[in-house]
Amino acid sequence: MTVFGKLTAFIKKEPVFFAAALCALLSALIVPPDGAYFQYPDYRTLCLIFCLMTVVAGLQSIGLFSILGYLLLKLAAGLKSLSLLLVFLCFFSSMVITNDVALITFIPFTILIYRLIRREDHLLRVVVLETIAANLGSMSTPIGNPQNIFLYSLSGMSFSQFAAAILPYSFLSAALLALCLLWGKGEKTTLNIQTDRSTIERDPRFFQKLAVYGILFLLCLLVVFKVLPYGLVTVFLLAAMLLMDRKVLRSVDYLLLLTFLFFFIFVGNIKRIDLISEALSSLVAGRELLSGVLLSQVISNVPAAILLSGFTGQYQPLLTGVNLGGLGTLVASLASLISYKYFSREFPEKTGAFLRSFTGWNLLFLLVLLAAALLLSGS
Hints:
By secondary structure, this protein is mainly alpha-helical. About 70% of the residues lie in helices and about 0% in strands.
């Protein structure tokens, strides 16, 4: 493959990273680099995202999530209970391990299970609802997704303020998911699924590593709630990983961190261009909720959160907007692309059906939740 071909393939694989780098570069042509650039990034957010991604990658590497998934499958008695279990596994796990990790872990797991019971005809709907569940469940906690980590850190809001902005929609989301899954007649199908833990690959030092990662995760939570300084925890985590499991450091999504950095540069430069800054501030002011939802449909909710945060101080409606904005188009939440890639790779003939089903379900959830948000906000 030529250099141009490799570049094209990379852009297709990482379009948001490329767009962020391009925006940063173009804005730097207008505002030449100087000492003020070092003030642009939110270093606390960058370090916190790095630490959380490292811990989650470590827990994934020792097989924890697969073990928990297989153990939970013992509770499934039929197709309806199986779909409920898998969808809410994504919903609740994403609150802690983030939406993208939940989908990376459980979408292949779901495909495997439905193939084992020879019911691939039910798979498309379950995968779509799992994707919605991961995106909505992840909004429920300050560490559930990158935009929450960023806005919670930037705004200095209390947990009660965060809860007021998000939890009403989390509860409504859970109710909508349950309603969609329970609607209709259940099929009486015996599920002969192997749930023996001996069939699952597990790290030989599973319990030792689990204890270390548990401690590191608790330290990350103490950073989230501003009990410990982020610099100290970051250094401690790096030292622990280098001593115990340095290969996990290669699993961290460094492109996501660079994407954040490039958007910080872009927003910082735009804020120094008075004409553009004033226009964007007046456009966003009082419309944070709708701005977050609409912009997310085009550039996805993480970049939308970073961009819009530079032009408003009303972080609660913005937090609601960019989280609900993860519904809608396939690019509204980049985590959704994970489900699309897994499903289309296994069932290329059903790619069109997936996109139609995904768009239909996402728009339904978005319309209901946005209507609730507008009603609660008095807009």
